[in-house]
Write a structure and sequence with these properties.
The protein is of the alpha/beta class. It contains 17 helices and 23 strands. Bound molecules: nicotinamide-adenine-dinucleotide (NAD).
Length: 507
C-alpha cells in the first residue's frame, strides 16, 4: 500500500479527483499549485473535463438512490466517525490549508474547527429530519409533512476557506440523504480531497461524496447537468450571479453566496484600545481574504477617528508579516501574484482618488521576500464614491471613514451593494439595538467584529452578497437540502359504503 493510500492526508504532488470511493485521474488539463509564501510550485491539480464531471454525477446518482433510504441515525453514525477522524487529522488538515492558502497555522486551525462544528450539527440528522405530524387533521384523517432528499447536489467553493466552506455544505447535504459533488477552488484543492478520503474511511458508501477538481469547464458542466438537483455556491459576486442565473435556468434550486464589503461602526463611547485590537484581527487576519473581514471602519466623530487612526498606525508598525507556517507570524501572503497586483492597484487608486494613505503596506519589508506579500495598508478620509469603499478589495487594506452621526454611517452601509456582515462598537445598548434592527445587512455584530454564526444558526448576507432565499449551514441547510412532501391518509372501515362527494374537501 502506498503512503497516500495508507495515510489519507499525506501530501500529494498531483491532486486528482475523488469519484466513487477512489482517487482517479480525469481531464487532460492541469493547473499549478503554488505555495503563496514562497511562490514555489508544489504540485499540480487536475482540471476536470466534461466526461470526468459526468462520471462523478453518475456515481452520485447511483449512490443517492440507496443513501436516501439509509435511516438518518445510521447516516449520523458515519458522521460521528467522520468527526473522530477529522479530530485525529486536525493538524495535518490545518497545515495543508496554510501551505496552499498562506493563512497562519492558528488561523487555519480556527477554520478547520469551524468546519468540524458543522459536522457536529449534522450528526443531529435524526432530530433535524423529524418532520411534522397532525393526528386527526380531519375525521379519521392524519397528515404529516416529511423531508425528502433531493438526490444529487453540487457545491462550488472559493479559495479563501478551502476546508471550512466545503464543510458548510457537504456534511449537511449528506446528512439529509443526498449525494454530493464538490468542486473546490483550483488554487488550494488539497484539503477537500483529504476530507473525501476521511469521510470514505469513516464508512460513507462509495459515490455519496465525490470531489471533482477543475475550473470554469467543471462548474458549467455541473450547472447544466440534468441529474444535479441543487447547487450551493460560495465565491465572488460576479460568479455567484452567473451560477444563480445559469443553474436557475436549468431548473435547479440554487443558493449563491457572493462578495462583501463589511463596515464596522465605531461610536464615540467605544473602548478605543479594544476597538483597535478588534480591527487589527478583523481587517488584517488572513490578509483580509475573508468574506467577513472588516474592510471599512466608520468612526462617528473626529475625536474617535483620530484615536483609532493613531492606535492602528502604532499597531501596524509592528504587524508581523511572513510565512504562515512560522510561529509568531500574524499575517501571511495573498493567494497569488495576480491577486497581489490587483490589491496593490486598489491602493494606488485610493491614493489617486484622494484618500490619505496613513500606512503604506507596499513598502513593508516582507514585500522583498519571495511570495505574495503586502504589508497592512490604512487609509483615512475615505469617502463613499471612492473605489476603495465601493469595491471589494479582498486584501489587507482598511479604510477609515468619518461620519457626522450614526444616521450617516448607516446610510453609507445601507447604500452599499453588498450586505454580508457589519458590526458596531459602543457601550450604548439603545444605539446598538436600533443599529442591529434597522441595518440592511445579513449578519450583525455588537462589539463582535467577525459575527460568523455558529453551526446551529445559518450564514448568509443580504443584497448582492447572496442570491437565493436560504442561507448556508444550520437550519436553513436542512430546508435547502430537502424538499417537503405532505401526505394525507385515512383508513376507512372495510365494506363501509361511501357516497361520491363533489364539493371541495373541507372537513
Ligand atoms: P471566485 O468567484 O473566483 O471562485 C469561486 C469558485 O468559482 C471557484 O471554485 C472557481 O473555480 C469558480 N469560478 C471562478 N470563475 C468562474 C467562472 N467564470 N465561471 C464558473 N466558475 C468560476 O472566488 P474566489 O476568488 O475563489 O473567492 C473569493 C471570493 O469569494 C470573494 O469575493 C469573497 O467575498 C467570496 N466569499 C464569499 C463568502 C460568503 O459567504 N459570502 C465566503 C467566502 C468567500
Amino acid at each position: 500500500m502506498s503512503l497516500s493510500e495508507s495515510q489519507p492526508c499525506a501530501p500529494r504532488t498531483v491532486v486528482d479527483h475523488f469519484i466513487d470511493g477512489a482517487i482517479v485521474a480525469g481531464g487532460r488539463r492541469h493547473g499549478e499549485r503554488i505555495n503563496p509564501a514562497t511562490g514555489e510550485i508544489i504540485g499540480t491539480v487536475a482540471l476536470a473535463d466534461v466526461e470526468t464531471v459526468n462520471r462523478a454525477v453518475m456515481a452520485s446518482t447511483r449512490a443517492a438512490a440507496h443513501w436516501r433510504d439509509v435511516p438518518p441515525a445510521r447516516r449520523a453514525a458515519v458522521l460521528f466517525e467522520f468527526k473522530r477522524l477529522l479530530e485525529a487529522h486536525f493538524d495535518e488538515l490545518a497545515e495543508k490549508v496554510t501551505l496552499e492558502h498562506g493563512k497562519t497555522l492558528d488561523d487555519a486551525r480556527g477554520e478547520v474547527r469551524r468546519g468540524i462544528e458543522v459536522v457536529d450539527y449534522a450528526c443531529g440528522a435524526p432530530e433535524l429530519l423529524k418532520g411534522e405530524f397532525s393526528k386527526n387533521a380531519g375525521p379519521g384523517i392524519d397528515t404529516w409533512t416529511e423531508r425528502q432528499a433531493l438526490g444529487v447536489v453540487a457545491g462550488i467553493t472559493p479559495f479563501n476557506f478551502p476546508a471550512m466552506v466545503p464543510m458548510w455544505m457537504f456534511p449537511m447535504a449528506i446528512a439529509c440523504g443526498n449525494a454530493f459533488v464538490l468542486k473546490p477552488s483550483e488554487k488550494d484543492p488539497s484539503p477537500a480531497l483529504d476530507l473525501a478520503r476521511l469521510f470514505s474511511e469513516a464508512g460513507l458508501p462509495d459515490g455519496v461524496f465525490n470531489v471533482v477538481n477543475g475550473d470554469v469547464e467543471a462548474v458549467n458542466t455541473l450547472l447544466g447537468h440534468a441529474r444535479v438537483e441543487a447547487v450551493s455556491f460560495v465565491g465572488s459576486t460576479a460568479v455567484a450571479e452567473h451560477v444563480y442565473r445559469t443553474a436557475g435556468e436549468h431548473g435547479k434550486r440554487v443558493q449563491a453566496l457572493g462578495g462583501a464589503k463589511n463596515c464596522a461602526v465605531v461610536m464615540a463611547d467605544a473602548d478605543v484600545d479594544n476597538v483597535v485590537n478588534a480591527l487589527m484581527g478583523a481587517a488584517y487576519g488572513s490578509c483580509g481574504e475573508r468574506c467577513m473581514a472588516i474592510s471599512v471602519a466608520i468612526c462617528v466623530g473626529d475625536t474617535v477617528a483620530d484615536a483609532v487612526i493613531e492606535g492602528l498606525r502604532g499597531r501596524l508598525a509592528n504587524l508581523v508579516v511572513g510565512d504562515g507556517m512560522s510561529p509568531g507570524v500574524e499575517m501571511g501572503p495573498l493567494i497569488s501574484a495576480d491577486h497581489l497586483a490587483r490589491v496593490r492597484a486598489y491602493v494606488d487608486q485610493g491614493v489617486a482618488e484622494g484618500a490619505e494613505l496613513v500606512v503604506d503596506g507596499r513598502d513593508h519589508a516582507a514585500t522583498g521576500n519571495d511570495g505574495y506579500f503586502l504589508g497592512g495598508c490604512l487609509f483615512d478620509h475615505v469617502s463613499p464614491e471612492m473605489a476603495v469603499f465601493r469595491e471589494e478589495i479582498f486584501g489587507p487594506v482598511l479604510c477609515v471613514m468619518r461620519a457626522a452621526n450614526i444616521a450617516q454611517a448607516m446610510d453609507w452601509i445601507d447604500g452599499h451593494e453588498y450586505g454580508n456582515g457589519t458590526c458596531i462598537f459602543t457601550r450604548d445598548g439603545e444605539v446598538a439595538r436600533v443599529f442591529s434592527d434597522r441595518i440592511r445587512v445579513g449578519m450583525v455584530g455588537i462589539n463582535v467584529p467577525l459575527p460568523v454564526p455558529v453551526a446551529w444558526h445559518s450564514f448568509g448576507g443580504w443584497k448582492r452578497s447572496l442570491f437565493g432565499d436560504l442561507h448556508a449551514y444550520g437550519p436553513d441547510a436542512v430546508r435547502f437540502y430537502t424538499r417537503t412532501k405532505t401526505i394525507t391518509q385515512r383508513w376507512p372501515a372495510p365494506r363501509r359504503r361511501e357516497a361520491a362527494n363533489f364539493s371541495f374537501p373541507s372537513d
